[in-house]
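Quick one, tokens below:
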């Protein structure tokens, strides 16, 4: 076996062993059998909410077990192919086998990170909200760029993206927008993106071509399903209706269909204009409000648990988590993990996995070598 295949084999085997330990393999297999039996029990569907929760848990566990099995099979087939090609002197087939093993290694690296997504709501869909900072057109344009970046990241990973609310900037970009991102572990991946994002560039809106610094904030909340109780006193919530703006059909500028909810005790504000009626928007806005208040509760718990941690993230204004520098050089750098890249075009087009993975690992406080210590 050549050295390159030997190294790939060792890396993949290490990842597989780690994933088996994190899953507690034998326990996971028994749990899957139990969930399969429950799903096949027709009485489960007497309670649709419980049935959906069980089905979702089963699907997630089945996917994790399936990933490990597919990597094991792929590793075995890749090694066999490489050895046969090496014996026959078929270099093209050998390189094909190496490429296959490299793909498995990359998948294994992502699976290791996904195994860290064990938070209470990590498997849920997510709302992502972007707000422009002070600076008018510059910040609005930057907020629009961030909205595009996260939408592209989501679509590249097979997630569904729906615009729930959007307030356009006067000349460009957006003042604020909220999108719903639906897919496995959407909140788990995106939660570390909450915070202030800083852009440095030559302004396309400045005739003098001066360098400008712009800020925009990202907030991420998990979609809360019916199995999670969020107690909201209706008297604490102020409801406003208004005429929606932006794309959405002829009705959008003719009726006060958009809904804004304000939770007075926490000053939490959500808005929805995606639906074609006030009723639809009100229902969705309440879901968004429950998600935001649940996220606040999660943040309180995390803050209490990490009160003494030096690396605790402050997501308030003026505490940027990442800088995107386009002039006088090109660099995107995460200020929490020190991960950086000069591929600014790739990042702004949604290539965020390296940043998300590093932030997730740092947040959990695990590394491959220390996972079981």
């Amino acid at each position: 076996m050549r050295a390159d295949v030997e190294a790939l084999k060792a890396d993949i085997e290490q990842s597989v062993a780690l994933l088996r330990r994190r899953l507690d393999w034998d326990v996971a297999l028994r749990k899957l059998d139990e969930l399969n039996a429950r799903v096949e029990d027709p009485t489960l569907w007497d309670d649709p909410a419980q049935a959906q929760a069980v089905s979702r848990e089963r699907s997630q566990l089945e996917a994790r077990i399936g990933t490990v099995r597919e990597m094991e099979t792929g590793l075995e087939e890749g090694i066999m192919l490489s050895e046969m090609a090496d014996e026959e002197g078929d270099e093209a087939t050998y390189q094909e086998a190496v490429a296959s093993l490299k793909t498995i290694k990359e998948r294994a690296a992502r699976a290791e990170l996904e195994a860290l997504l064990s938070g209470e709501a990590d498997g849920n869909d997510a709302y992502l909200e972007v707000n422009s900072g002070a600076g008018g057109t510059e910040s609005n344009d930057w907020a629009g760029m961030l909205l595009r970046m996260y939408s592209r990241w989501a679509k590249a990973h097979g997630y569904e993206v729906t615009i729930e609310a959007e307030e356009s900037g006067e000349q460009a970009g957006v003042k604020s927008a909220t999108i719903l991102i639906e897919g496995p572990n959407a909140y788990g991946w995106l939660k570390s993106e909450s915070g202030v994002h800083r852009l440095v560039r030559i302004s396309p809106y400045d005739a003098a071509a001066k360098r400008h610094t712009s800020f925009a904030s990202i907030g991420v909340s998990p979609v809360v399903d019916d199995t999670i109780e969020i107690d909201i006193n209706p008297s604490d919530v102020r409801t406003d209706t208004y005429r929606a703006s932006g794309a959405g059909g002829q009705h959008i500028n003719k009726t006060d269909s958009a809904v804004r909810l304000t939770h007075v005790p926490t000053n939490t504000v959500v808005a929805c204009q995606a639906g074609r009626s006030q009723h639809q928007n009100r229902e969705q806005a309440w879901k968004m409000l429950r998600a935001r208040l649940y996220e606040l509760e999660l943040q309180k718990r995390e803050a209490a648990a990490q009160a003494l941690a030096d690396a605790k993230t402050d997501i308030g204004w003026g505490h940027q988590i990442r800088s995107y520098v386009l002039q006088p050089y090109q660099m995107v750098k995460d200020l929490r993990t020190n991960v950086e890249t000069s591929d600014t075009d790739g990042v702004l087009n949604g290539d965020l996995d390296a940043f998300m993975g590093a932030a997730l690992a740092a947040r959990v406080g695990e590394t491959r070598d220390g996972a079981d210590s």
